[in-house]
Amino acid sequence: MQKKKKVLMERNKLIKENLDPDIAESVMQEIEQKHVKMRSPIYFVLGSTILTLGVICSLLVTIYLFNLFLYKLRIFVPFKFLDFGLTGLQPFVETFPWWHIVIAIVAVIIGIELLKQYDFSYHKNFMALILIVLVSTVGIGFLLDQIGLNEIAENESNLQVIYGHKYKGEAWLVGTLKDIDYDNDVLTIEIPHGEEVEVIVDNEAIFPSGLGFNLGTELRIVGIWEGEFFRAYGITGVTRIYRRLRINSIQPCYGGSCQ
Amino acid sequence: MNTKSREYKNLSDEEIVKLVISKDHNLYEFLVRRYQKKLLSYVGYYIPDYDKAADVVQDVFIKSYINLQGFNSHLKFSSWLYRIAHNESINAIKKYHREVSLEGNENFEAVFLDHTKNIEEIFEKKELRENLKRAVHRLPFKYEEVIILYYFEEKSYEEISDVLRISLGAVGTRINRAKKMLVELYTQHP
Predict the structure, then answer these.
(1) How far apart are CA A129 and CA A124, in angstroms?
(2) How, if at all, do strands A186-190 and A218-226 pair?
(3) Domain boundaries in chain A?
(4) Burial class of residue A96 (count of CB atoms within 10 Å of its CB; 0-12, 13-18, 19+)
(5) Do A36 and B41 touch (CB under 8 A)?
(6) Is the dihedral of CA A92, A95, A98, A101 positive or negative?
(7) Do B66 and A38 touch (CB under 8 A)?
(8) CA A122 to CA A116: how far, in whole Å?
């Protein structure tokens, strides 16, 4: 019964299809009666302009944020905190420039989606185009970071919202070694912008990159605040400083073992 | 209308579009008459219900009219119109949840099986085309849409590329795969 009904429906459909449909009349009637108007050319020019601006903006945002991402990585070297194992996880999460890279990725995805709206997107090899866009944005972002643009911008007070850094957290500290008090196992660390913190080195402190750091070494320290002092459970120097110090053969021993 | 018909009969779609925009919007009726049957047939592949398909086609022409000044003259008007029809059909499929029936012709599979060696031959044989329409609905949508445009609507690769906004290479690949799938579909699962 069901099958027969379907056959009849198909037959009716075919009969109707063979009749000359007069959609034209109803279309023209609707246009007249409902006063359907054509969109003005300005609408399309505006749409096209907004699209182009959207593509440009999203790519500029990608370039800038990727440059900022590299800069923040350079400043904090967040991966260095992972040398401390689980203890370093929290400082790593706090210093890794997450939102820079996330927004950069979102912006590049938006840019690519907007590019798809252009007719050339399917006439040309779109995958190659995406690759060019990605390589260009990453490349320009890298160059911007290398030419020192961020260092100049960092000093602008108006840009502190973007460039203002947090050099200490509840369980971590980033700074330069200013002084070593061998008798009391206390290091003086200068946090950028002049603040100094005295770091008490705990007896069980770990030194994942060894003890070969000297005054001026950039340090990443994990531990706990004890009033205005910081008790260090782990200290590591940034690799590039280490290399320089090693080349100069300045190998001060820290911890009292070779005094 | 008859005098007008004769006057505008030899004009291309694109020339009529220019006249509709610059002179008289009533001339749009010529374009609608030119394409109403073709679009009804095209939309009919996706929306088997005649009345619903007719509504979709009407919407296509209204949308096309509203956006006529945004028509890219580098494209063919027919491709542009089919693009709108394609989008509207997809929207309608989502709205109506397409019901596809492959029943109703007991001889269909037997007839098809006899000809699976040469798919081109089947498309050329008029009596088999109707049966094949049903078979095509069994394909994944992205293969179904290229087969419909290429074989039933007789569109070129360039036109299909413009309608579906995919590259020429992708059109060729999908058509070839679709043909193979059609053959496999009926040799392995009759």
Answers:
(1) 8
(2) unpaired
(3) 41-163, 172-247
(4) middle
(5) no
(6) negative
(7) yes
(8) 8
pLDDT in tens, B88-137: 999 998 887 655 443 333 343 444 444 444 566 655 565 566 667 777 88
Q: Measured between CB atoms, which of A3, A23, A122 is closest to B54? A: A23
User: CA of B189 to nearest chain A CA: how many angstroms apart?
Assistant: 21
Architecture of domain A172-247: Beta Barrel (2.40)
Percent of chain A as helix, strand, coil, to the nearest 5 = 55, 15, 25
A&B contacts, CB < 8 Å: 92
Indicate if ipTM > 0.85: no
**What structural domains does chain B harbor?**
1-99 (1.10.1740.10), 101-190 (1.10.10.10)
**Which two structure tokens, joined as six digits, stand for B54?**
């007719």
From CA A70, how far away is CA A101, in angstroms rounded? 9
Question: Residue A246 has what pLDDT?
Answer: 31
* B17 shares contact with chain A (CB less than 8 Å): no
Reading the block at residue B57, the tokens are 């086609």
Instruction: Give the Cβ contact number of residue B44 at 10 Å.
Output: 22
Task: Enumerate the H helices of B47-117 as residue ranges.
Answer: 50-66, 77-96, 108-114
